[in-house]
Structure formats: structure tokens, C-alpha cells
Amino acid sequence: MAANFFTAKAQSTKPAKNQTTEPALQPWVEKYRPKTIDDVSAQEHTVAVLRKTLTSTNLPHMLFYGPPGTGKTSTILALSRQLFGPDNFRNRVLELNASDERGISIVREKIKNFARQTPRAQAVASDGKTYPCPPYKIIILDEADSMTQDAQGALRRIMENYARITRFCLVCNYVTRIIEPLASRCSKFRFTPLDNTSAALRLSFIAREERIDINKPVIDALISTSNGDLRRAITYLQSASRLSSSTNPPTKIQTVDIQEIAGVVPDSVINNFARVLGIELDDGMDVDDRSNGSVGFEPIKKQVKFLMREGYSAAQIISQLHDLVVFHPTLDGRKKSSCALAFAEADKALCDGADEELWVLEVALCINKAVLS
């Protein structure tokens, strides 16, 4: 019975392996993952330093840190492929997600066993290219900031003992969660959020490759809703593409589609809400014009009820209102600080499970009082 089970399991995994190699079935974040470090967007300093390691093949232990979606894992994978080639990549590189395998037992067993193995001799590349293939292996620990303190302590000793034949690359979002003895043994590389120009160029390239007709406002919406996370922007673009192609005939991707997919409240809705609160916008509405009856408790209460019935997230509404108020060109510092206190109290209350409608109403009334005072 056991033999039949394992045979069936082995046979069932073969088609899945073939499916992962089919480009049409791949997520775009994997399909357009950088193949070389020169393809990495916007991280010029890191790319320049790592490019030199391809010529010297003298790679130190490395610590990549920065916000999600900035290319940390893609960079080390691309570098590893350029160092070892497709044939040696599997036996020279071990990639682990430390958020799933973060205990000390994983460090003592899986990581230590791989680190102590002597690398195999260089083989002739099947694609006809020549690769440096230096005499060491690379262990990539993604989300290393999720590892326990004990696991990080055990990892420090392994890095010392097997440094001759194994290099480590720790990838994390928060460098402060890596213990100092471990961080001091690594060369640190900081990945910054992608600038708008680099993100726009990459998204435009993917759109051309996938034959998608998008305009600049749509690209701007992808960038603004992803907050410098290119991976998220690519995912939104793929979702919008499938949504537009599902209709008959296919429709063109609009800015509102991106905002809907991202869970962002449309700009028109937030702007209408801001006007009801008495915030002056580019349309020339006067903040102190109360004679039109659009500013007051009842209109604000009515607008809050509308937002809640539409199913918008209270946290998202408050976040977008925060950005609108903080970056408003004409509100003075005193009014902005009063609003900021309301935003902070609401954020804490919502995290504690408070009623969303009541706190959106509370924030709205505080903003109304601040801007009209």
C-alpha cells in the first residue's frame, strides 16, 4: 500500500513540474523576474558592487534588506545563475524561506548538512556558455528576520566553520531584527523603494511584451497604489489584464480598474468626502464657504454611511484622507497636526477592533472642526 502511494505521488508531481516551466501559465512576477543582475531595476549601487564579484568571484556573506518588492531575492537568484549556470544551480544553491523554517532544528540539520558538503567539480555548461563557477555554494535565507534568536545564534557558528566552501545571503525587511554578531559578518546592501521612473519603465516593458494597451494614467495608478513595491504593481497589472480580456469585446484598462483591484478607494470618492469635510481642493471650492449647506454634521454622517455601505475599508479611507490632509498645499501646520491626532487615535482604535463607521465619523468630524476653525 505504501509503495503504491509513493509511486502515485511521484507520478502526480511530474505534470506539475512541466506546468511550472510553461511561460503562459506563470505569474508575471516569475515570468519577468530578472535573469541577470543587469536586469534589476533602480538598485544601481548594489548592482555595481555585485557586478565586480562576477569578475573576481570573491563573494562575501551578504545581507540584503529593504521594503518588499524591491528586488532583493531576484538579485541574489540572478547573481547565482550568472555564477554557476543552469546545470550547477540546483546543487550549488539552497534557497529557504526562513518564515516557514525558522527554528534551530532547521539550522542544525538542513542548513548545516548543505553547508558542510564540498562543492562538485565544475561541469561543462549545457547551453555552451562559460560560467565562473567558483569553489563554494550559496545558501539564501529569505525573510531571515523571522528566524528565532537561537536559530540566528546557531547560524553564526556555521557561517564561521564553513566559510571556505559556503557563502550565506540573508534577505530581510527589517535589518534591526538580525542579531549583531550575524549582521557584522555580512556585507550589507540596502534596497530602496523603486522610483517612479524605473517602475514605469519596467511596467511599460511588461505591457509591450504582453501586448497590453495602457496609458500613462494607468501606469501612474499602478505605481501609486503599490507604494514602490514592483512585485505588487506587476500583480495588479496582470489582474487588470485578465479582467479586461474577460469581457466581450475586451475593454481597455482604466485607472478605476487598478484602484478597484488594489482595494483603494477611488479618487473621486475621496475627493467628494473631502469636500463635504470642508477641505479645499483644486476645483476652487472655498473652505470657509458654509452657506451652501454642504458642510455640517448631517452631510458628513450621510457621506460616512454611503462609504460604509459601499464596503470600503475604514483603514483605507483614513489612510487616503491622511495623505490628502498631510500633503495639502494650503492647510497650515496647526490644522494638520490636529487632524494627525485624530488619525492616530482612529488607527489605534481600529487595530483594537472598534466599530469602523463610528471611527470614520469621528475622524471626519475632527477634520471638519480643524479645517474650519
Automatic annotation (TrEMBL):
GO MF term set: ATP binding; ATP hydrolysis activity; DNA binding; DNA clamp loader activity
GO cellular component terms attached to this protein's record: DNA replication factor C complex; Elg1 RFC-like complex; nucleus
On whether Cytoplasm is a keyword of this UniProt record, the answer is: no
Give the Pfam families listed for this entry: AAA, RCF1-5-like_lid, Rep_fac_C
User: Which chain positions lie within coiled-coil regions?
Assistant: none
Superkingdom per UniProt: Eukaryota
Q: Which InterPro entries match?
A: AAA+_ATPase (IPR003593), ATPase_AAA_core (IPR003959), DNA_pol3_clamp-load_cplx_C (IPR008921), DNA_Rep/Repair_Clamp_Loader (IPR050238), P-loop_NTPase (IPR027417), Rep_factorC_C (IPR013748), RFC_lid (IPR047854)
Which SMART domains would you find in this protein's record? AAA (SM00382)
Q: Which GO terms describe its biological process?
A: DNA repair; DNA strand elongation involved in DNA replication
Name all AAA+ ATPase domain ranges.
58-195
Alphabetized, the UniProt keywords read: ATP-binding, DNA replication, Nucleotide-binding, Nucleus
What SUPFAM superfamilies does the record tag this protein with?
P-loop containing nucleoside triphosphate hydrolases, post-AAA+ oligomerization domain-like
- Comp. bias (Polar residues): 9-21
Where in or outside the cell is it found? Answer: Nucleus
**Disordered: annotated segments:** 1-21
- Please give the family membership noted in the entry: Belongs to the activator 1 small subunits family.
Q: PANTHER family this protein is in? A: REPLICATION FACTOR C / DNA POLYMERASE III GAMMA-TAU SUBUNIT, REPLICATION FACTOR C SUBUNIT 4
Name of the protein this chain belongs to? Replication factor C subunit 2
